[in-house]
From TrEMBL:
It is found in: Cell membrane. PANTHER family: LIPID II FLIPPASE MURJ, PST FAMILY PREDICTED COLANIC ACID TRANSPORTER. The keyword Lipoprotein does not apply. The chain crosses the membrane at residues 34-53, 73-91, 117-141, 153-171, 192-213, 219-237, 265-285, 319-339, 360-380, 392-414, 426-442, 448-466, 487-509, 515-537. This is Export protein. It is a multi-pass membrane protein. Signal peptide: none annotated. InterPro entries: PG_synth_SpoVB, Poly_Biosynth_Transport, Polysacc_synth. The keyword Membrane applies. Keywords: Cell membrane, Membrane, Transmembrane, Transmembrane helix. GO terms for cellular component: plasma membrane.
Length: 560
């Protein structure tokens, strides 16, 4: 495996241990996050860009096709998380634990047993989703018969994605994020190519049904997963001799059989199921209740309600998940690092790592969310054509993305530190708050109501988790507060500057031109990045959070 951070001995250079005593956990966190962030951002951006030709080829059927796609994918997301059973996260966490104790052979045996379980889970849940499609359509899509073939097409992907997930979890357990990131990007490329070719042939060449086009678009998830599995298998085969040497030189496996492994895997996996599905549970609750609750307060047709739901539940959500994926990248990287430190009982380093993780999260997430708010108008117009309500939905969702990302990171940190039950309990509290506030918030804010209820629920969860972490591992709140204050100040300066440019440009050129919106989006994104980057480099805030290597960037740009 590729070494991430620290100076290694000759043997270690060949196999990359998860936590070298002389390596910096901050460096490992930054390098791992960089790989996962790059993979997540590129794949998310690609996953958003396909909307432009897809929407054009759907023509007047686009709103219905978009809503149908969104409903199918929300069900798929839940089955995906349940079918993988949280085992990839558990495997990553436990392999890091065993590697920290020099028990590499035990970790390998755990992985092999987990692979068998994942294959079985894929078959079972793929079959349940396929044959139970009519029931799922009744439960989650208000009985929409169009969604049945969509759900069935996604069931095929559920067959193999559990295997894909555990392969990623195995490599992440060694803090080797590069293969996971590369496979994620290639998976998205294969998926997008298939769905666009299929949609073009069905809608443009053959003038066919948009339902068939959506079915093929969702089946593309299987194509992407198959390609990604091939890439990860090649990566593991390439490193196999080195992994075997490390396994032979490690401590022997003691008193562990397959029953021990199964119990251990599922004890760690269940919390990952619930917490990884956290945002999906919120989305499914919106999907299941939105039409019924909205009808209590507004007089709207089914098509209008579908459009309202699509605006926040799919279109805005698809864009904000680009920046939420940044926090997911940090969470994936933090789990093996913190698990290794916990196994060694190093409380002071755990406290430092929690501080580093939170600082890095806010350093990236706050400017990203405010930046997306600032460029919401050209961004929405570029992807979906101008829609005043859609722009407002995206702006509101951009702010909420901070809470979604914070929940993702904090739940991963608690799980890495074996505080699984508390993490689940706090999530349940937040979800109950979401359920209780949903109806009154829709009554007050109408189509914005689900977003308001989500923000309240996620705020409750995040506050409870932060409080628990600080009680157990009193990280440096003073230092964290000072740095977050600087991040907020510089982000606001960037935000105001971009908003001013946005107002000036669209005041003179109008709202609806897509080509102009693309140009404005690129210019504003570049301007925002330059302003924020200059401020954090000039004040050395970047050095404090990212480390001394930032000095090289300052020299390149002659910033003193």
């Amino acid at each position: 495996m590729q070494v991430l951070g620290g100076n290694k001995s000759h043997d270690e250079e060949e196999v990359m241990p998860v936590m070298d005593l002389e390596s910096s956990s901050q460096d490992t966190m930054l390098k791992g996050s960089a790989w996962m962030t790059a993979g997540s951002i590129f794949s998310r951006i690609l996953g958003a860009i396909y909307i432009i030709p897809w929407m054009a080829w759907m023509g007047s059927d686009y709103p219905a096709a978009n809503a149908l796609f969104a409903k199918g994918y929300n069900i798929y997301s839940l089955f995906l998380i349940v079918s993988t059973a949280g085992i990839p996260g558990a495997i990553s966490k436990q392999i890091s634990h065993y590697n920290a104790l020099d028990e590499y052979s035990t970790g390998n045996k755990l992985f092999k047993h987990g692979l068998k379980i994942m294959t079985f889970m894929g078959v079972i849940f793929g079959a349940v989703m396929f044959f139970g499609a009519p029931v799922l359509a009744t439960l989650f899509t208000d009985g929409d018969p169009r969604s049945i073939p969509v759900i069935k097409s996604l069931a095929v992907a559920v067959l193999i994605i559990p295997i894909l997930s555990i392969l990623r979890g195995y490599l992440q357990g060694y803090s080797d994020m590069a293969p996971s990131a590369i496979s994620q990007f290639i998976e998205q490329i294969a998926r997008v190519i298939y769905m666009l070719v299929a949609t073009y042939l069905i809608m443009v060449v053959n003038k066919g049904s948009y339902i068939n086009a959506v079915v093929q678009s969702t089946f593309a998830a299987f194509i992407g997963a198959a390609v990604a599995i091939a890439i990860l298998v090649l990566a593991i085969l390439k490193k196999l001799p080195k992994l075997r040497r490390l396994s032979r030189s490690s401590k022997p496996v003691e008193n562990l059989n397959e029953r021990n492994f199964t119990r251990e895997i599922f004890e760690q996996a269940v919390p990952f199921i619930i917490l990884d599905a956290g945002i999906t549970f919120f989305n499914l609750f919106d999907q299941s209740t939105f039409n019924q609750f909205m009808r209590m307060f507004v007089n709207a047709t089914g098509a209008q309600l579908d459009n309202y739901y699509s605006l926040f539940g799919f279109q805005a959500n698809k864009l904000i998940m680009i920046i939420v994926s940044l926090s997911s990248a940090m969470a994936v990287t933090a789990v093996p690092i913190l698990s290794g430190l916990y196994s060694k009982g190093d409380k002071s380093k755990i406290e430092d790592q929690i501080s580093n993780t939170l600082e890095l999260f806010f350093f990236i997430m706050i400017p990203a969310s405010l930046g997306m708010y600032a460029v919401a108008q050209p961004l929405w117009t570029t992807f979906y054509r101008y829609d005043a309500l859609g722009v407002l939905m995206l702006q509101f969702s951009s702010v909420i993305s901070i809470l979604l990302g914070l929940f993702t990171v904090l739940s991963a940190v608690l799980q890495a530190l074996y505080r699984n039950k508390l993490a689940i309990k706090y999530f349940i509290y937040g979800f109950i708050v979401k359920v209780v506030t949903q109806l009154p918030m829709i009554g007050i804010f109408h189509e914005f109501g689900p977003l308001v209820a989500t923000s309240i629920g996620m705020a409750v969860v995040s506050w409870l988790m932060l409080r628990e972490l600080h009680l157990s591992y009193p990280f440096q709140t003073g230092r964290l507060s000072r740095r977050i204050s600087g991040i907020i100040l510089f982000s606001l300066i960037m935000f105001i500057s971009v908003m001013f440019v946005n107002w000036v440009v669209f005041h003179f050129v109008g709202n609806s031109d897509r080509i102009i919106s693309v140009v404005v989006l690129v210019l504003e994104a570049g301007l925002g990045g330059v302003i924020y980057g200059y401020l954090v480099l000039k004040t050395s805030l970047a050095d404090k959070i990212l480390g001394s290597k930032v000095e090289r960037i300052r020299r390149i740009f002659n910033i003193k």
